[in-house]
Design a protein that fits this description.
Order of helices and strands: HHEEHEEEEEE
Structural class: alpha+beta
Number of strands: 8
Largest sheet: 8 strands, mixed
Length: 139
């Protein structure tokens, strides 16, 4: 069941809008493979699980981007189809579409994704990312 932004209290709505702003910055950083910007957005406890089930911590994820073992293309698109706000945690659910290169192989993505954001003081940090292939996906 989807939760409408209009159903959120003012504090939750501010949290959601703050996360959406940082998410837009992160998406642009991903498209540019800008590990420095991503480093400032990712939580120290960050965990990333990709659509193939590979798991990365913050350091291994950034190392893969810096070494170009993982390189996103500019067509990457992340959408939001649902969200949850619970105090200092915001969860965004949506789709990831586009292309990347992983270990030298071109990847075409059409994945469901979940991003978990955590408030750290006045900042929002991406704590977790998981993407999953959709059963009917042609990829």
């Amino acid at each position: 069941m989807s939760v409408a932004a209009s159903d959120l209290d003012p504090t939750e709505l501010r949290s959601l809008e703050s996360v959406r702003g940082v998410e837009r910055v992160r998406i642009e950083a991903i498209r540019r493979n800008d590990a420095d910007v991503m480093q400032s957005i990712l939580d120290p406890k960050f965990v990333h699980i990709n659509g193939n089930g590979q798991m990365y911590c913050k350091d291994s994820y950034l190392a893969a981007i810096r070494s170009r073992r993982l390189a996103y293309f500019s067509d990457l698109e992340l959408t939001e189809t649902d969200h949850r706000v619970d105090d200092d945690v915001v969860i965004l659910v949506g789709m990831m579409r586009g292309h990347a290169r992983l270990h030298g192989e071109q990847q075409a993505y059409q994945l469901r994704s979940m991003r978990v954001w955590k408030a750290r003081g006045a900042d929002w940090k991406l704590l977790a990312w998981q993407s999953s292939r959709m059963r009917d996906s042609p990829f």
